[in-house]
Design a protein that fits this description.
six-stranded antiparallel β-sheet, Rossmann fold, 17 helices, alpha+beta, five-stranded mixed β-sheet, flat, 1026 residues
Length: 1026
């Protein structure tokens, strides 16, 4: 075979379509470095099936795709097509492509990793290309492609490697490869033979086991068929007996109903008579009531007239008393008028006396005012003499001014000395102040230094505390990490347990074959139409508290695996589906089953009775009817003693189950022991799944909280680490500052020493100035001696002034006495004027009182006149009322006579009515007796009906058969009931002794036997192929 063309698109550096034609005579491809010569040989190697990217000078196979350049985008595919000539028929004629003149091989690779191989544009496998090239002596790994330095490797290779080269060139390698492939297939076949042998051994073991189970199931079915026949016959006999009792009780029931009908007719007739008589008595009572009302009205009118007479007489007596009081009051008012007139005369006389006294006091006040004016004139003359004496003193003072000026000069010099003293003192004070400030500053700095030492110590203490806290945080972190690991392990364990339970629940492990088939098909959309509407299992619809799970699982048993459907039509669909697919058996309950008549259970106060099973079961809202069907007649108790106590009660028709799972059905059959039903543990498993889901959620929350706490602890550790570093730096800075502060305090102490020295110098200068001040003070004392002589003359003049002032004071006292007397006189005049005003006010009050007395007198005169008129009117009313009383008495006597006659007639009618009612009571008593008998028969009929229904339910629950159909099919037969019951108990005992029965074993045996036969045939084929 010869190369004809090489076509490349997107392979390595060949971004555009490139076609290289190998004409006869072409021996080499020449070009500069990097132009792509090696890419041509890589393309040939790649298209022939090279799988190693390293042999193509790359890291991964995607590197062979054109990766773009500055001006071009990368490509998404690389394709190489190699065209070979087959003119020399290098390929055998028997080969698939041996008759072609040219062979075209193509390989494509996409960036997504997908690749394609084609031969003559027909998709093929890589193996097809390798086989084709192997026939032609060409391939990606043979030495038709010789790379650089390959010749040296061939010459220096070992004899064994060189032999490999010769075998390739001679064309022997293809046969070796095919031999190796055949050996691989043989080895694979031998492995398959071993696996098939193992499977056959296992299947044969299962076949043997199922064979035993099938035979056991066959025996079970025979015994169950015989037991079913006996059950059907006994049920038919019991049904016939119950039917006969039902017919007898129905006839008696009808007889009593006819008797009650007659009683009702008699009672109706009597009640009609009673109604007529009652109507007459009611009419008579109405007439009596009307007469009674008229008599009452007449008596009322008579009473009102008598009352008016009494009221009028009472009013006459009251008006007489009022008239007496008014006459007495008129006499009193006359006396008061006389007394007020006398008081008025006395007050007029007192007013005139007070006015005369006031005029006399006013004259005396004028005289005393004149005397006060005379004293005032004398006082003014004395004050003028005092002013003249004071002028003489002023002249004496002017003479002493010279001496005072001299004294002032001396004092000025003293002031200069004092000024120097002041400056020295000021400087001294400033220095002392400075010394004080420096002392304070030094004290402050010493205190600051102590505070700095304290802060440094505090920082050191805080650093130690932070280090201790950091150590506690690290311990806390280790504890949290350990708790976190423990929580994660706990979470992993509980999650694993939850996943295992969920996987078992999803795979329906432990469920009947029919249930698994239906629930698995329900998940497939294509099978849902064949099944109908499936709601789920009974175990999915109900749940209860853990303490009741054993009891509920025991009483429900296999019914926990029952499938809830929408209707009986859906049940038939599901059963047909199981039959067509041999999927086993299952029980189907409609979502709204027929309600069975059952009296609700009422607790009788027994301590061990827990209540109805429905009361301890929680059911989904739409499936309460299913729960009612399954548990409606089930009562939950604590122990077997309580269960037997309930069962022994007369008329108790409920199934009783204890907390430990023992069951007593209405017929007295007791079921107990270890609960081993196939549905056992379903409610527990579901509760465990819910508990695990809740615990996993809580553990996730706890885990999140621990992780959050760990994050907080990590943050605290990081913060405390940073704080510790900051505190270390703070301590270092404090120590440096301590050294600087101590240097500043030393400089401050030197400044205090210099200031103290200056203070001592200023004290010496102050002593010199004190001597000069003593000399100046001596001159001042001499001038003061002269000044004192001048001041002695001034003292005499001052004595004269004091004498004048004494006289002036005496006159002022006299003036003040006169003024006091005038003030007292004026007060007396004011008191008299106030008395005069009070007398005037009293006079006005007396005038007002006199006027009021006249008004009251007039009012009393009017009242006396009105009372006389009223007395006359009341006397006339009494006369009229007495006439009315006499008329009412006559009418009342006539009405009472009529009332007595009508009341006697009414009493006779009431006696007739009472006799009729007594007859009616007797009829009702007879009716009640008949009704009690009827109720007793109805109770008996109800019991018979419940027994028949219970018989039907047992037959349907056990065999899914209708009782009426069974009776029609059996028709006439003979049976010994006692022997049949003994035989039935014997059959049940035999079935119980057989233990668990796999009713699907025969079908499973046939299926497994077919598989065993198929595997045996395959084993024979493998043995023959080897």
């Amino acid at each position: 075979m010869q190369l004809k063309t090489l076509e490349m698109i997107g392979f390595k550096s060949f971004g555009d379509k490139t076609v290289i034609t190998f004409q006869p005579g072409v021996t080499a491809v020449v070009g500069p470095n990097g132009c792509g010569k090696s890419n041509i040989s890589d393309a040939i190697r790649w298209v022939l099936g090279e799988q190693s990217a390293k042999h193509l000078r790359g890291d991964k196979m995607e590197d062979v795709i054109f990766n773009g350049s500055e001006n071009r985008k990368p490509l998404g595919m690389a394709e190489v097509t190699l065209r070979l000539s087959n003119t020399g028929h290098a390929l055998a004629a028997s080969s698939e492509f041996g008759h072609y003149e040219e062979i075209e091989i193509t390989r494509r690779l996409y960036r997504s990793g997908e690749s394609e191989y084609l031969i003559n544009r027909i998709p093929c496998r890589l193996k097809d290309i390798r086989d084709l090239m192997m026939d032609a002596g060409v391939g990606a790994r043979i030495h038709a492609i010789i790379e650089q330095e390959k010749v040296d490797n061939i010459l220096s290779s070992k004899p064994q490697d060189r032999r490999f080269l010769f075998e390739e060139v001679a064309g022997v390698m293809k046969y070796k490869a095919r031999r190796q492939e055949a050996m691989s297939k043989l080895e694979s076949t031998q492995q398959n033979q071993l696996r098939v042998n193992d499977i056959i051994i296992e299947v044969k073991r299962q076949v043997n086991s199922l064979d035993r189970q099938a035979k056991k199931a066959e025996r079970y079915q025979k015994l169950r068929a015989e037991m079913k026949d006996l059950d059907f016959r006994l049920a038919s006999v019991e049904y016939a007996n119950l039917g006969a009792e039902w017919t007898a009780s129905s006839e008696e029931f009808q007889k009593l109903e006819d008797e009650l009908t007659g009683f009702h007719a008699d009672l109706g007739r009597i009640e009609s008579t009673i109604e007529e008589t009652r109507t007459d008595t009611l009419s008579a009572e109405h007439e009596l009531s009307s007469l009674r009302n008229r008599i009452h009205e007449t008596e009322t009118a008579l009473s009102r007239a008598e009352h008016r007479v009494e009221m009028s007489r009472s009013q006459i007596a009251a008006l007489g008393e009022q008239q007496s009081r008014d006459l007495a009051d008129r006499e009193y008012l006359t006396q008061e008028t006389v007394r007020v007139a006398e008081q008025k005369t006395r007050h007029e006389e007192e007013t005139r006396t007070l006015e005369a006294a006031i005029n006399e006091k006013n004259g005396l006040l004028g005289d005393r005012n004149s005397h006060l004016e005379s004293i005032s004139r004398d006082l003014r003359e004395k004050e003028q003499s005092l002013d003249e004496a004071r002028t003489g003193i002023m002249n004496a003072l002017a003479a002493s001014a010279g001496e005072k000026s001299k004294i002032a000069n001396l004092q000025s010099r003293i002031a200069q000395v004092d000024e120097l003293d002041g400056k020295g003192l000021s400087e001294k004070q400033e220095l002392e102040k400075k010394l004080l400030e420096l002392a304070v500053l030094l004290e402050d700095r010493e205190r600051d230094l102590a505070e700095l030492v304290s802060r440094r110590n505090a920082a050191q203490e805080e650093r130690r505390n932070v280090a201790a806290r950091l150590e506690q945080s690290l311990i806390r972190k280790k504890t949290l990490e350990a708790t976190l690991t423990e929580t994660r392990n706990r979470l992993a364990g509980q999650s694993s347990r939850l996943r295992s339970l969920l996987e078992l629940e999803q795979s329906l492990e432990g469920y009947q074959k029919g249930v698994r088939t239906v629930m698995s098909a329900r998940k497939e959309a294509s099978e849902r139409d064949s099944l109908g509407t499936i709601h789920g299992l009974v175990a999915d619809m109900i749940e209860t508290e853990p303490r009741y799970e054993t009891a509920i699982e025991a009483v429900l048993g296999d019914r926990l695996q029952s499938v809830v459907v929408d209707s009986q039509t859906d049940s038939l669909k599901a059963i047909d589906y199981l039959k067509t697919r041999s999927g086993g058996r299952s029980t189907f309950i409609p979502r709204t089953p027929r309600e069975m008549r059952s009296e609700p259970f009422v607790k009788n106060g027994h301590a061990g009775v827990i209540g109805s099973a429905l009361s301890v079961v929680h059911c989904k809202d739409d499936y309460t009817s299913v729960a009612q069907y399954l548990l409606g007649d089930v009562v939950l108790v604590d122990t077997m003693d309580t269960a037997l106590y309930l069962w022994n009660k007369n008329g108790f028709d409920k199934t009783v189950v204890t907390l430990s799972g023992e069951i007593v059905d209405p017929c007295g059959v007791v079921t107990g022991g270890a609960v081993e039903a196939s549905g056992s543990g379903m409610l527990t498993k579901r509760r465990e799944i819910k508990a695990l889901e809740h615990e996993v959620t809580e553990l996730n929350g706890t885990l999140a909280g621990l992780e959050a706490d760990l994050s907080l602890v990590d943050a605290a550790i990081e913060s405390d680490t940073r704080i510790e570093a900051d505190l270390s730096q703070q301590v270092h800075r404090s120590e440096i500052e301590l050294v600087n502060r101590e240097k500043d305090n030393a400089a401050l102490r030197e400044e205090i020493g210099r200031s103290s020295e200056r203070v001592r110098t200023l004290e010496g200068e102050a002593s010199s100035r004190a001597s000069l001040r003593n000399e100046l003070n001596t001159g001042i004392e001499q001038a003061m001696e002269v000044l004192r002589g001048l001041e002695a003359g001034h003292s005499n003049a001052q004595a004269n002034i004091e004498s004048l002032q004494a006289e002036l004071s005496a006159r002022k006292e006299e003036l003040e006495t006169a003024r006091t007397a005038i003030t007292e006189l004026r007060m007396e005049i004011t008191a008299l004027q106030e008395k005069q005003a009070a007398a005037v006010r009293n006079m006005a009050e007396l005038v007002k009182t006199e006027s009021e007395l006249r008004e009251r007198m007039a009012k009393r005169e009017t009242e006396i006149t009105d009372i006389a008129v009223k007395l006359e009117e009341l006397q006339e009313g009494i006369t009229t009322a007495e006439s009315e009383i006499r008329a009412h008495i006559g009418v009342l006597e006539a009405e009472r006579q009529v009332f007595v006659s009508k009341q006697e007639a009414h009493t006779a009618k009431m006696e007739v009515l009472q006799a009729a009612e007594e007859q009616a009571r007797q009829v009702r008593h007879d009716m009640e007796a008949a009704q009690k008998k009827l109720s007793a028969i109805e109770v008996k009929r109800t019991e018979l009906r419940m027994k028949i229904e219970h018989l039907k339910d047992n037959l349907w629950t056990t065999y899914h058969a209708e009782l009426e159909t069974v009776v029609q099919e059996l028709r006439q037969f003979e049976i010994n009931i006692e022997e049949s019951k003994v035989k039935l108990d014997d059959l049940r005992q035999k079935i119980d002794q057989m233990g668990p029965i796999n009713v699907d074993a025969l079908q499973e045996y046939n299926e497994l036997k077919e598989r065993y036969d198929l595997l045996s045939a395959q084993q024979n084929d493998i043995n023959e192929s080897i």
